[in-house]
């Protein structure tokens, strides 16, 4: 490979990441270890199935699957480069309870499970609320890092000790003010 072809390859990959970040209005910024530990601490003990809406490079989904082998974890990511890397990392992690899907969580026709975790962008939280309100069962839990779902009533608003973000906790069925 020549220097020029390496440069073209790197620029193409960066451009692909940027195009999807603009299209999805969300950059693939991973949750770091301390933040992941805080999120995992709020996943209820009786959870059987969990989705990470926008699983990025796989950091959070892989960590939850590792710490909670009793939970079937599904990460959903549309941006192709982070998704491809997350698939490779998942193979290396070897967790039988982890599935990664390339798709748009807004249109994917599947049950999100008992818990949804997300770390997205304020511009898309309204869409996220619409999807979750339609698809999740009463009693299931949403844990949103950093951004509240507009019009929803959180039962928990927890400042994270690992940074300045908050975790917003919602229970479906009680997520709308009476
Ligand atoms: C900030 S990253 C969070 C990654 C991971 N959840 C974590 O906490 O480490 C948000 C990811 O959501 C993805 N995303 C945004 N909108 C999406 C959509 N509609 N469908 C699938 N993925 C989406 C972005 O591509 C990005 O990788």
What would you say this structure looks like, in words?
With 178 residues, the protein is α/β, with parallel strands linked by helices. It is globular and about 65 Å long. Strand 1 (49-53), helix 3 (59-67) and strand 2 (72-77) form a beta-alpha-beta unit. The protein has helices spanning 3-24, 33-41, 59-67, 80-93, 125-135; strands at 49-53, 72-77, 98-102, 115-118, 141-145, 156-159, 166-171. The model has no long low-confidence stretch (mean pLDDT 96). The protein has a single domain, classed as Vaccinia Virus protein VP39 (Rossmann fold, 3-Layer(aba) Sandwich). It has a seven-stranded mixed sheet with strand order 3-2-1-4-5-7-6, with helices on one face. It binds S-adenosylmethionine (SAM). Residues 20, 24, 26, 28-31, 52, 54-56, 59-60, 76-79, 82, 104-106, 119-120, 124 line the site of S-adenosylmethionine (SAM).
Indicate the overall shape: globular
CATH superfamily: Vaccinia Virus protein VP39
How would you classify the helix and strand content by structural class? alpha/beta
The CATH architecture assignment turns out to be 3-Layer(aba) Sandwich
Show unreliable segments.
none
Largest sheet: 7 strands, mixed
- Mean pLDDT across the residues is 96
Percentage of residues in DSSP E strands? 15-25%
Gyration radius, rounded: 17 Å
What is the name of the CATH class? Alpha Beta
Q: What string gives the helices and strands in order?
A: HHEHEHEEHEEE
Ions, cofactors and other ligands present here are: S-adenosylmethionine
Number of strands: 7
- Ends distance: 63 Å
Q: Write out the strand line-up for the largest beta sheet, numbering strands in chain order.
A: 3-2-1-4-5-7-6
Number of domains: 1
Which range best describes the helical content: under 10%, 10-25%, 25-40%, 40-55%, 55-70% or over 70%? 25-40%
The fold-level CATH name is Rossmann fold
Helical run tally: 5
